[in-house]
Automatic annotation (TrEMBL):
Binding residues annotated for GTP, in chain numbering: 342-349, 388-392, 442-445
One MF annotation (Gene Ontology) recorded for this entry: GTP binding
Protein name, as recorded: Translation initiation factor IF-2
Chief localisation class: cytoplasm
InterPro entries: EF-G-like_DII (IPR053905), IF2_II (IPR044145), IF2_N (IPR006847), P-loop_NTPase (IPR027417), Small_GTP-bd (IPR005225), T_Tr_GTP-bd_dom (IPR000795), TF_IF2_bacterial-like (IPR000178), TIF_IF2 (IPR015760)
Keyword 4Fe-4S among record annotations: no
Function of the protein: One of the essential components for the initiation of protein synthesis. Protects formylmethionyl-tRNA from spontaneous hydrolysis and promotes its binding to the 30S ribosomal subunits. Also involved in the hydrolysis of GTP during the formation of the 70S ribosomal complex.
């Protein structure tokens, strides 16, 4: 009962324990030992008393097998107790369980109970017998093997079962007795086993919170097996420890290139305020929706004790296209890819033909050659790939698309003509691409051929012939007469060997589209140059916005191929559309994903084309050229006289280079008018004016349609500026800002002052000490500074629109009625 105090309880137990004397049965001792497992404190003198021994005897046992207790009040540990019990059990064996109860229990007269239910002997309910629990802790296993039921049976008893049920009614509660009346043997082993089964069962029930302490036992631990509680405590401890560890382990945060402050906070499991605070600490004022870059976000995250990882977004392209670096051991030598460049009519085509014919003549071709944009020849068993499109234009267009196709450039220079503008361009292009140049001095068969002069000229461009002590290979040839071609090709192979060109044939093919067209019979056909890997028939390829399977594959001789390794040019059919030349291609594994990528690319292209076209201006011209968006610079020239128009037109068109063609689409005399601006707007042209000004309508229209108008007074200024703009060198430090326009209504001659113009401000304002232009019929007749500005008789700082004023122009008196005076200032452009 709950009202029973622990002292009383213990006393009660002790009373019940009294019958367990050491001279009783072995089974009793074990019982006792099990029973003691539930007692809080058991002191030396109590043990002695319970066993009917002296304290000294117990002390002796302990001294012998453990350590000497300090005094008779010392609380004994489980280990010590079990030592004592073991000792006493061994020293005092008993013959049978009846012996134990002999003095306290009187067997009632044998009264068989025929009507008693024929039940199997059952283990007593462990809940009601907490004291029977084994105590596995403290390393002392419960000695459950000892009380063998057979040993507990009286030998040769006529009614052993009935004898066994006899029990001390007063000392041992009935419920603690195993009912063996019908079962014959007392199967204590089974009983122990049942106990073991029930203990964990109860422990789990306890964990589910269903267990209730049994008040009738009055024992705090009565209903809860000690081991289960301890296990529970351990588990709880572990859980807390794990939580602690988890708290201390820095949180891993994945941060992309850009992230909003709010998102960062949520990824770090922090509040927005915490993140904003750290940002402020680092001098960044940012609100939650504001986007911060990776570096800033990483700094904040680290500040808040997180571990930062860069979030990598994998695009379809990255998933689809394998662009891993090859291992050096996977690389094998490949054929060089050669381009032939040079000035017009210096013999590029003739040379390519001669090479092809050499190859055909040597018998390898075995038939008709066909033009597929590139071909391969074998020189002394070594292949060389030639791009069949001569000139640096194709080369440049490929480069502009980012395709680096060629390894070696053959520069054809006609021996009798020498270095020409396109020769120089070719040299510069090859140099820019950082590829070796082999000079083929052609037409040496011609009597006027002067190879030395060519070599001499080449030195001016940094190409010094080998026989002149330099490192540029110069081969005298005649493409027409087939002289020196073999030597030239040998030099190509040598140069290629020096360059150690390598590729990995054992991977998915990748390369460049050399040419593509729509064939009536075969559909889209494309010439591809495999640059790495091996292209197989049946491969799925993606080239720009084209996708498809390689249906047929032929080489430059029309021979069908199953495979094409690095540096092999092939013509294939099977693509969905003709890809643009210069685009790269990849053999991929997943057709569905490839189609998805193509759709994505098409969308991007569409978005690009529907984006508002930025009008060309000298400021953005270079950017547009660089971006490959501009191949032509259209100009409209207006000048004061026809002669100037012609001169300017000729000079400007000469500025054309390999990247941009300068074209004057319109030229005329007179002021720039609205129709000029309209033409410029539709054809995306820049208007250039010489000694002319735009009229008011043209000015408005130009602002509306964003047309760039450039006014010059000297032709050279114009040429220099446009040339600089094309090279990206345009760096105007000042910009002209028109302040306003006034119309001269009256002119006065004042002695000592000069011509005073009585004006009316049409638009804007006129400011004292500004720059002015005197414009008559749209033509600038003078440009200078304002000398004075008056309003009535007083000097004025500025005169606004719709007001009248009087002004004089510095060092200019030829002002006439009807002239327009344009006021402007030069403003510095902030870089
Ligand atoms: N005598 C002589 N004439 C040659 C030689 N090589 C080319 N020619 C001639 O030079 C002219 C131009 O030759 P092409 O091969 O068309 O020159 P190209 O550089 O390809 O010219 P474009 O394609 O216009 O750039 C042709 O009439 C050729 O016959 C040569 O070695 N000797």
């Amino acid at each position: 009962m709950s009202a029973v105090g622990p002292q009383r309880k213990r006393a009660g137990w002790r009373r019940r324990r009294n019958p367990f004397r050491p001279d009783r049965s072995e089974a009793k001792l074990i019982w006792r030992w099990l029973y003691l497992g539930t007692i809080d404190k058991y002191r030396v003198h109590e043990v002695a008393k319970d066993f009917g021994l002296s304290t000294r005897e117990i002390t002796e046992i302990l001294t012998k097998y453990a350590s000497t207790p300090k005094n008779h009040m010392q609380v004994l540990t489980d280990h010590e107790l079990s030592l004592i019990f073991d000792y006493l059990t061994q020293k005092h064996p008993v013959s049978g369980i009846q012996v134990i109860f002999a003095d306290t229990y009187k067997e009632p007269a044998a009264q068989p109970k025929p009507e008693a239910p024929k039940q199997q002997p059952q283990a007593p309910r462990p809940e009601s017998r907490p004291e029977n629990r084994p105590r596995p802790q403290n390393g002392v296993p419960p000695r459950q093997e000892q009380p063998r039921p057979q040993q507990a049976q009286p030998q040769g008893g006529a009614k052993p079962a009935q004898q066994n049920v006899q029990r001390p009614t007063t000392r041992v509660p009935q419920k603690k007795i195993v009912d063996t009346r019908k079962g014959g043997d007392v199967n204590l082993a089974k009983y122990d086993q049942r106990l073991e089964e029930l203990a964990p069962e109860r422990a789990s029930r306890m964990q589910q919170g269903k267990e209730k302490f049994r008040s009738n036992t009055g024992n705090r631990r009565g209903g809860v097996p000690f081991s289960s509680k301890r296990r529970q405590d351990e588990q709880e401890k572990m859980r807390r420890l794990q939580l602690e560890i988890a708290k201390k382990t820095p949180l891993k945060v994945q941060i992309p290139d850009e992230i909003s402050v709010g998102e960062l906070a949520s990824r770090m499991k922090k509040t927005g305020a915490e993140v904003v605070k750290v940002l402020m600490k680092n001098g960044i004022m940012a609100s939650l929706p504001q986007i911060i870059d990776y570096d800033t976000a990483a700094l904040v995250a680290m500040d808040l004790g997180c571990k930062v990882e860069k979030e990598v977004t994998v695009t379809i392209e990255e998933r689809l296209i394998d662009d891993h670096e090859d291992k050096p051991e996977d690389l094998v030598p490949r054929a060089p890819v050669v381009v032939v460049m040079g000035h017009v009519d210096h013999g590029k085509t003739s040379l390519l033909d001669a090479i092809r014919n050499t190859s055909v003549a040597s018998g390898e071709a075995g038939g008709i050659t066909q033009h597929i944009g590139a071909y391969q020849v074998q020189i002394n068993g070594k292949p060389i790939t030639f791009l069949d499109t001569p000139g640096h234009e194709a080369f440049t267009s490929m480069r502009a698309r980012g395709a680096m196709v060629t390894d070696i450039a053959i520069l054809v220079v006609a021996a009798e003509d020498g270095i020409k503008p396109q020769t120089v361009e070719s040299i510069n292009h090859a140099k820019a691409a950082n590829i070796p140049i082999i000079v083929a001095i052609n037409k040496i068969d011609k009597p006027e051929a002067n190879p030395d002069r060519v070599k001499q000229q080449l030195t001016e461009y940094g190409l010094v012939s080998e026989d002149w002590g330099g490192d540029t290979i110069c081969c005298p040839i005649s493409a027409k007469k087939n002289i020196g071609i073999d030597n030239l090709l040998e030099m190509v192979t040598l140069t290629a060997e020096m360059a150690e060109l390598k590729a990995n044939p054992n991977r998915a093919a990748q390369g460049t589209v050399i040419e593509a067209r729509l064939d009536k019979g075969r559909g889209p056909v494309a010439t591809l140059l495999v640059q790495n890997g091996t292209l197989n028939q049946g491969d799925i390829i993606i080239a720009g916005t084209a996708v498809g399977r390689v249906r047929t594959m032929v080489d430059s001789k029309g021979k069908r191929l199953e495979k094409a390794g690095p540096s092999v040019p092939v013509e294939i059919a099977g693509l969905s559309e003709a890809p643009s030349a210069g685009s790269t291609f990849h053999a991929v594994a997943d057709e569905r994903m490839a189609r998805e990528l193509v759709e994505q690319r098409k969308e991007e292209e569409k978005a690009k084309s529907s984006a508002p076209v930025q009008k060309v201006s000298l400021e953005n011209l270079f950017d547009q050229i660089q971006a490959g968006e501009r191949k032509e610079l259209a100009l409209i020239v207006k000048a004061d006289v026809q002669g100037s128009v012609e001169a300017v037109k000729a000079s400007l068109e000469k500025l054309s280079n390999e990247e941009v063609n300068v074209r004057v689409i319109h030229g005329g005399v007179g002021a720039i008018n609205e129709s000029d601006v309209m033409l410029a707007a539709t054809s995306n042209a820049i208007i250039v004016g010489f000694n002319v000004r735009p009229d008011a309508a043209a000015r408005d229209s130009a602002v509306r349609s964003n047309v760039d108008m450039r006014m010059y007074r000297v032709i050279y200024d114009c040429i220099d500026e446009i040339e600089a703009a094309m090279k990206g060198m345009l760096a105007p430090k000042f910009k002209e800002v028109v302040l306003g326009h006034t119309e001269v209504r009256q002119v006065y001659k004042v002695s000592g002052v000069g011509t005073v113009a009585g004006c009316y401000v049409q638009d804007g304002k006129i400011v004292r000490a500004c720059s002015v232009r005197v414009v008559r019929d749209g033509i600038v007749i003078h440009e200078g500074s304002l000398a004075s500005l008056k309003r009535f008789k007083d000097d004025a700082k500025e005169v606004a629109e719709n007001y009248e004023c009087g002004l004089t122009v510095e060092k200019f008196n030829d002002i006439k009625e009807g002239d327009i005076i344009e006021a402007f200032t030069m403003e510095e452009i902030k870089q």
